[in-house]
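G.,

No rush on this.
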Amino acid sequence: MNASRLLRGIGAHATITDDGFTPGAYILSIGGAEQSHVDMARPQDISYEYLRRIGNVLDLAAPAGEPLHALHLGAGALTLTRYLQATRPGSEQAAVELERELLDFVLAHLPLPEGTRLETVIGDARESLDRFAGRSFDAIVLDIFAGPDAPAHLATSDFYAELIALLSPAGVLLVNVGDDPPLAFARRQIREVQAALGTGGMETAGDVAALAQRDMFTGRYPGNIVLGATRFPWPAEWTQQLLAAGPHPAAVLTGEDLDRFAG
């Protein structure tokens, strides 16, 4: 496959091409930069490292195979939507995407698996939250920005508090943060999420963890750090299971270790 479409809203071309390795697997690129990878035959196989880490947390969010109610902010190629349908059939999902043309392009060339229950919303991630008032989610995934060029209104404790308020009591918020050395933006986002958990009477219960390749926490390399926020203490067994699941070498920072990194 070699498909292309101009996204007029951002003035860049989106392309979908074969990944060159796995039959039936494709890469979505925007403006020449790879954005998402999808294996249409085996959507439970996630290629990108940070998405694999998010998938590993989603595996822990409920007993195996149990459907989740999930909200995706930033659609991309809907890799995680497909993953949840494959691993937790019957999951009720919603996806918010700013670029209508991108979502239409992806769905036209990479259709969702039969039975996928997905509500799609076109709009700004924060402005669209009113649509979900009164609902609660077992998982919310924010995968929109990278580095200090992130939209300011999506990188604040106020926004994270709005997302946390939409979590079910056992729910988890997952935020992908891409950054370059010395990771000042990623460190600030950890503090913003921690501040968000300090609102609404959750000071003694909410918790934050950071997941990445071990060397990311030296601050010397560019890459992605996944933040996980819960309305309950981060389970020690989750840390051990995530370290075992990889991708390796894996690190999960919590508590004082996370505070030292964020500071």
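When you get to it, here's the other one too:
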Amino acid sequence: MRVLLLPVLPILLAMAVPAAAQSRHDSNAPMNFGADHIELQDKANRGVLTGNVIVTQAEMTLTAQRMTVAYTGKVADGHPQISRVDAAGDVVVKRPDQTATGRFGVYDIDRRLVTMLGGVTLHQGANTVNGSRLTMNLDTGRAVVDGSAVAGGGGTPGTTQAAPGGRVTGTFSVPKRDGATAK
């Protein structure tokens, strides 16, 4: 495997997800929350969840140390209508065949977008892409990573190193070929 450094600043890298591996996310599915502490702020139309926060919706799981859940003030079927989830601290978003990590994350439910910021890493199968910002479209399965000053993939797993010029870096697997020899 090689570390791929792309020469454009800031650079966008799109990882197309095969339709069979990634289905359209159901943003209308119920959201289940768990945290060490939940504070409801009804006048502000939000809830603040802290400590080992876990939110699941359909096949997607979000985890972080803190999340703020904004709702519209409207109620449907006895439930407040959530419009946005902001996450901070060790943010992880897991979907089938994809895991993204970063320092901060925003799930815009109406637009069906997840945006992550700060030392972002996206794993898809054996492929890894690192950058400063990730935008995942939950309808199309498309993920776009913008460049940063953080990189990984060439050293010890789980570590990062400086990437000059704010590049997107990554490691992509290459299928084994019969009869091919390394030169």
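The chain has no helices and 14 strands. Confidence is low (pLDDT under 50) at residues 1-22, 150-163.

Enjoy the weekend,
O.
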